[in-house]
Amino acid sequence: MRRSLRQIATLTWFTVHEAARKRVMAGAIALTVLFIGLYAAGARFGYRSIDSSPNLSDLTRPIFRAFIMLAGLQVTTFVGSLLAIFIAVGSISSDVDGRLLDAVLARPIRRWELVLGKWLGFAIMLLMYVGATTLAVVLVTRVFGGYWPRNPHIGVGALTLSALFLMTLAMVGSSYLSTVTNGVVVIVLYAVGVIAGQLEQVGASLPTPNETLRTAGIVVSLLVPADALWRLASAQMSPPRLVDFGIPSPWTSVNPPTLWMAAWTAGLIVLGVVLASVAFSRRDL
Amino acid sequence: MPTIANAHPPAPAHGPAIEAVGLRKEYGRKVAVEDLTLTVQRGEVVGFLGPNGAGKTTAMKMLLGLVRPTAGEARILGQPVTDVRVRTRIGFLPEQFRFHEWMRADEFLDFHGRLAGLSLAERRRRISEVLELVGLAARRHDRLRGFSKGMLQRIGLAQAILHNPAVVFLDEPTSALDPIGRREVRELIHRLRERGTTVFLNSHLLGEVEQVCDRLAILDHGRVVRQGPLAELLRQELEVEIEVEPLTPDLLAALTPLCRSLSRNGHRVTATVSDRERLPAIAGVVSAHGARLYRLAPRTVSLEELFVATVEDSGDK
Q1: CB–CB contact B156 A103 (8 Å)
Q2: What is the pTM of this model?
Q3: Axis crossing angle, helix A226-236 with helix A61-88, rounded to the nearest 10
Q4: Which chain A residues are closer than 8 Å to B159 by Cβ?
């Protein structure tokens, strides 16, 4: 047990160290800082014109105020999702193909310990990135627009979970597929998840709800819950009235997912780590 | 010169260092290793030879637990290789040594030291020692990215012996080294042997194998076609020059069953025989045929001749 923990900790440290040394996240962080600067300027002018517009009622004004923050979060979430996929897409396959693991796995280390160690390393990086960027958008919105979301902790948690899910999905793929194939598959799954989520919203908000669209959307959301978690986060961070709004948009949801979706995703992540470990254990080097 | 110290207590001194029974690996329909059965005693330096594509690297990876055998069992120091605990006592230099090149030499060794279970104090001490041993002490703070192939092979060797393993697997350890580097590796292997380390050396440099190995295993078409102590194997194979008058077809026919191979050149015959005891028998046959024996000169064959003969022999079957 102690040996296992020590090996996992060594590999977690190694993974974070490797990413830092190779500046894996440097580009994303630099662009995110630039984006948050732009967002701050946009928020400042956006909130000013919303607050000074005489045409907005007291009913709609808070909705527009929430939209600005949600648009900002949508950008950081998208970057976070891509980052999650890219850091893990070759995590196993490219190391195996590059023969980097021969000497490592001749050491007293089990395959699942390597998978879990790497997973934890990626998770630490994503927690820091998604946590910091989401918090930055929320704080900038507070400073320049005086807007504070309803449940920021649930929002940040759901978005982090979404990134962790995509990273795990990429890791599972990496233990079965080559890096390029895996990258294509995971990006397609992510895109399908988002589009299915939007179609589900359209289906649900028609005057006569379309059950086929809704069911398809729900099934896809259960398999790739990235869009569902975005909707959970956006609903939790919007005023209650916006949640009841009932029109399909990227920032609103008809029947937003509950916290059960977060629990389901956590289950999928655990399953993913197990699957990746099993697949990697069967792989010959 | 730093010494190779004992970081781990010696393992219980019973049972062989390496034991493979019927190891087999199939990739789909292709059989990479048909039947690997061999035993290496503790403290032996064994040369693992075979032509390209004989399955040497796959065989070695099965012994290390990196490739799952289709059938059979591998034991190291009496433990199944799938048991991670035994791997604290194994060192491995892979053939296509590719390491995480973003690391510095000392970081790389520290990482492997940690994985091998060495304490901080042991790592500090051993990293300096092995860097000295492989001649890279001056480069300890350099990134591996800037290393030449030879230097990477040296750091790979350092990694393989870092934790004072009881069994070391070296897959073509000198392929990227110049002649001086090769000699240094030979000296290193000698030193490992003096310390009682078992060395499993996969190499196609027969001269190297002849100089450092006690034992030999030759793999061809995925099976061990010959194994045993090197000196014994070389002694077994004797080349004999026979000069005899008159060399009648009858005499030649009588000599043939005594020899492994036989070729005639005028009244001379060059033959290979399995052991020295055949020599008086040959002399007996010659005199029984009433011929005069002018020369009966045995000569020990080189490892190269033994290797070529073994592989050609197994290829014919």
Answers
A1: yes
A2: 0.87
A3: 150
A4: 103
